[in-house]
Specification:
Largest sheet: none
Number of helices: 8
Helix content: over 70%
Strand content: under 5%
CATH superfamily: Uncharacterized conserved protein DUF2267
CATH class: Mainly Alpha
Distance between the termini: 19 Å
Number of strands: 0
Radius of gyration: 13 Å
Length: about 120
């Protein structure tokens, strides 16, 4: 999926402006990069448009934190409210699910608590 289409999908799912949706997408990917192994982050990055690829850290931090902490980190990075950040993380995860090959998404989800997959499967 191209960068503009990805951000457009996030924008439509959240009701945020294009700039806010782009910032939210980058913040969510950066936070996921903190959570994923280096190898998994590389696999995911390879499927993203160049403009988003640079947002995903492939340092392999593999920090352990859940969905709530993810939302709080995204909120802090974007300045959005908690409900906006929650909806935004959902929108980015759902857009990722639609944008990358299923096996790549499944591998990413396998490194995250089940609440992430549940969120990505909720319709927005």
């Amino acid at each position: 999926m191209e960068y503009k289409k990805f951000v457009q999908a996030v924008m439509e799912r959240t009701g945020l402006s294009r700039e806010e949706a782009a910032d939210l997408t980058r913040a969510t990917l950066a936070t996921l990069g903190d959570r994923l192994s280096a190898g998994e982050a590389r696999h995911l990055a390879a499927e993203l448009p160049d403009s988003l690829r640079e947002s995903l850290s492939i340092q392999g931090g593999s920090e352990r934190f859940g969905l709530h902490d993810t939302v709080m980190r995204v909120r802090k990075r974007t300045g959005l409210t908690v409900p906006e950040a929650t909806g935004g993380v959902r929108a980015v995860l759902t857009t990722l699910r639609d944008a990358v090959p299923g096996e790549v998404f499944d591998h990413v989800m396998s490194q995250l608590p089940g609440e992430f997959r549940e969120m990505a499967e909720q319709t927005t």
